[in-house]
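Quick start: read one record
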Amino acid sequence: MSRFLQSSLAAALALALTACAGGVDSNVKATLESELPDRFSEVMPVSDVVIDGPWWRSFGDADMDALVEQGLAYNSDLIIGAARLREAAAAFRQTRSAQLPDVGVFVGGSRQRSPSSSVPGTSVISESGNFGVSVGFEVDLWGRLSAQSAAARQRYLAQGYTQAALRQVIAAELVRGYLGAQSLIARRVVLQENVVLLEASLGLAQRRYALGAISELDLQRSVSELEDSRAQLAAVEQQSAASQRALLVLAGQMPTEQALKSLTVRALDLAPRDLPEIPAGLPSSLLERRPDLRAAEANLAAGQADVSAARRALLPSLSLTGSAGRASGDLSDILSGPHLDIWSIGADLIATIFDGGRRRGVIAAAQAREEQLVETYRNTVRNALRETLDALDARTAAVQIHESRQAQAHALAKAAELADRRYQEGYDSYLNVIDARRSLLSARQATIEAKRAAGAAYVDLVLALGGGWDGQVVSAAP
């Protein structure tokens, strides 16, 4: 080897080693943990209870349980996500295989006719055959292949965590949708009762008008109130059917009329305050409990491994090859006849001196992606903390709002009764009766909505705290 070539190779190796120096990645997770507050705001008591398993069973509704479990088995997004997880697993196996030797077999033969060198003007037919085993292997001198394998494994884990997060979201959406369907059914019952009441009231008003006891103005007001309630009832019935069809699709079913008839949605009898308490814990525990944060962390680890692999690609690569077999001068005797043992062993050390900046460009691109992933992870943690604090506040407020709405509806029911009695006795106008009934109807519907919102706030808090996930969706690569 010439002195110039030796110097060039040494310089390239030194530059490559320099490029790989300083490749220790900072612990972003530890840095973020130090930035988190010591404990969540004390909006609700902190206990040692663990939110695990099918948390939706807290509502005590067997029909809801069956719907959620069906959705977790047949929801299209989850099926697509499962296929993506298998794709990530296959990509990891493909990348990992680069660290293993390639083993193959070969069988070859040839038969040719060529001019004879001993007898001019004649030809000679010759043949040969060989078979054996060949092996090729790239030695992972600098850890480039293992870094690539680590990146693929982290992407597989990230896809697994993403699938776990999607399962949580689908379960939460099914419960929220079920609660919404319950509230619409309850509103329909209230409006049906109101229509029946107003129909009876209109009949009485028509008889009193015929006797001259009330004016036509009061009669027309009665008609107006009845038609308004009928219109609200028709709108709620349409919304109820639409919400139940959406539930069927979310659960992986066809929204046919038959499926709609078979869907059972029970009335929500459980008071929001009776739902179990949810532990808030420490903010740093979110980093372990929430699969979306684990997915962001795994993606960041994959990006860091990409940078490491790109740096190590600057270093020389060493490949080993070998083969062994047998050769015969006669194709018909290749397996049984006389033959010769053949073998070969080789090693290639390849170092790139100049590539026009291609490898440096790969490193720069990997570093830029890593910076994106760092900030994505930070922002995901910030949003998770905000969602949790918002959910804690919303859960506390929702319980209070429901109880206040209940008290309001009770008071307005008494007021409507008094207004009707005063009208019957001639102390008040019918307008006061109408106002009292409108207020009562609004309060009853607001109470129903408050119960739905309180249930949804419970769901949001479970989701924000990473409930229903045991962290074992993907514990090891395939």
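The two ends are 46 Å apart (CA to CA).
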